[in-house]
Amino acid sequence: MSARHAIRFGVWAPHHGFFGSDHHPDDLPDASYRRNRAVVVEAEKLGFDATLIAQHTISPRDPEAEVLEAWTASAGIAEATSRIEIIAAIKPYLYNPGILAKLVTGIDQISEGRFGINLVSGWFVPEMKQLGLPILDHDTRYDYSAEWLRIVRNLLAGDTVSQSGDYVGVDGLILRPKPQRASGVPVYFGGESEPARVLAAEQADVYFINGRNLADTTALIADVVARPRTKAPLRFALSAFVIARETEAAAKAEFDHLLSLVADNNVGRLKAGTDAAVQMMKVNAGVPVVGSNGGTNAGLVGSYDQVADKIVAFRDAGIELFMLQFQPLAAEMRRFAEHVIPRVRERETAQLEAAQ
């Protein structure tokens, strides 16, 4: 288990306009930069600690749908905020590692050291095809990512890097300015297959887990922690969709309502274009779920006290950061900040006092 840190809360930026139903009457899709900026600025004011901006060149749901460009948006949102951590997803095959590292140092400067990257090796095949990129098989993508990430990390450490391999390389490259934090820019990592777990243990700072129940989350953490590692202890984050209400019955009623709306989502293109070897979609197999990346599978559905208790239980298992989805986004984000975050802080304080 990782060393104990205070629980942090993050919010997924609505990069494709929504999480949950794509036709919720109070949360219609809006992937515009202005909407995403407004969500993150408000999240910061409400006390959220981080935001995740996913990277898609095209929408996995609808070829005509708008989708946010993660890196330009991250730069703008960095300028618009002052405290919240901004985490931008990156698919390594889209960027030369030297160019990407330079973008990272730029946004790190704009944010004054509040920037992180979330490496995902890619899973939506039509995106690669439409960009004219070679379609690497699942495990080969992780070989590519490992090689790519070693170069990026060395560049972000301020080193002069001459490194080449089977896929990418740089020759005598040095980047200035360096990242503002002495510890560098944190690398979050998403992926749960065997090669993904190996790479996370070797190179990541924080491992993102798709939403799943506490027992399965605990087992996954134990598996990754047991793997060889030479860096500081790996830390863990969890993706989850939250439905919190005054009572458990009210929360379950809202869950059923959202499930009825989600049933009409058009996911044919998403399913058809997903690499069959990707583990992310398998987490939800056969389980009614609202949200992406495990969504309500994490079980954060219930009364305010129940949700707070579950969050603390996940923290006791090793989760530090909860990256959350809501619908309707703005209203539910405010509800969570008002009713759940204070309850979690009370429980954290009680745990600390009991340990003294």
Number of domains: 1
Stretches where pLDDT is under 50 for at least 5 consecutive residues are none
Number of DSSP strands?
12
Question: What fraction of residues sit in β-strands?
Answer: 15-25%
3D architecture notes:
The protein is α/β, with parallel strands linked by helices. It has one domain (8-355): Alpha-Beta Barrel (TIM Barrel). Helix content is 42%, strand content 16%. It contains twelve helices and twelve strands. It has helices at 33-46, 70-80, 97-111, 125-130, 138-156, 194-203, 214-225, 248-262, 268-273, 304-317, 329-339, 341-355, and strands at 8-12, 50-53, 85-90, 115-119, 161-164, 169-173, 187-190, 206-209, 235-241, 243-245, 301-303, 319-325. An eight-stranded parallel beta barrel has the order 1-2-3-4-7-8-9-12, surrounded by six helices. Strands 5-6 form a two-stranded antiparallel ribbon. The protein has a two-stranded parallel sheet with strand order 10-11. Helix 6 (194-203) links the parallel strand 7 and strand 8. Helix 1 (33-46) crosses helix 2 (70-80) and helix 1 runs parallel beside helix 11 (329-339). It is globular, with a radius of gyration of 20 Å. The model has no long low-confidence stretch (mean pLDDT 92).
